[in-house]
Amino acid sequence: MRKLLGNLATTKIAARGLIGTVEEEELRMSSKDPKVDQQRTGGGFNVYKSEPLMANLQKVIQMAVKILAVLMTAVIFWGLGDVVWLLYKQLKAAPFMLLNIHDILEIFGAFLAVLIAIEIFINITLYLRDDVIHVELVMATALMAIARKVIIFDYAKIDAGYVYATGAVILSLSLGYWLVTRKH
After folding, report:
1. In the predicted model, what is the mean pLDDT of residues 48-77?
2. What is the DSSP letter of 40?
3. I need a surface site. Which of 16, 23, 28, 134 has the fewest CB within 10 A?
């Protein structure tokens, strides 16, 4: 358990004080231990210079993450096109230039889907820069996704159990987000 907590001390959670203090993290990062210094290479990934196989595998992973970033950018632009097309189609339909509540909720859903894709893109690019799990950003993305789901709920078609389960997910994500972001 103590070893697990020591490994977790490198995450932003530790820097925020949930597992350790900022001072402990700075002390650990200023270590003169050659094993610690050996791990700090390769654009944020832990690559051991003495192990060429691991170094090559890390390069492959970095390339895969870059490809994912490019693909996510394409998804964002396709989603943007979908929002524009949906808005155009809804405004052109009869009654001209008027939207009913169903149309507005459909447009909101499309907007929020693009915003979620942007958040995922940010997660991908942060993965390239740091060897840190960005818990705060991941949880914020999850909260945005579940909020999108709630906004586009059709309460006439879903049962109460689904609404309660969604509420429990929102509550647990909100509590987790609060725990991650609070300052001591």
Report:
1. 89
2. B
3. 23
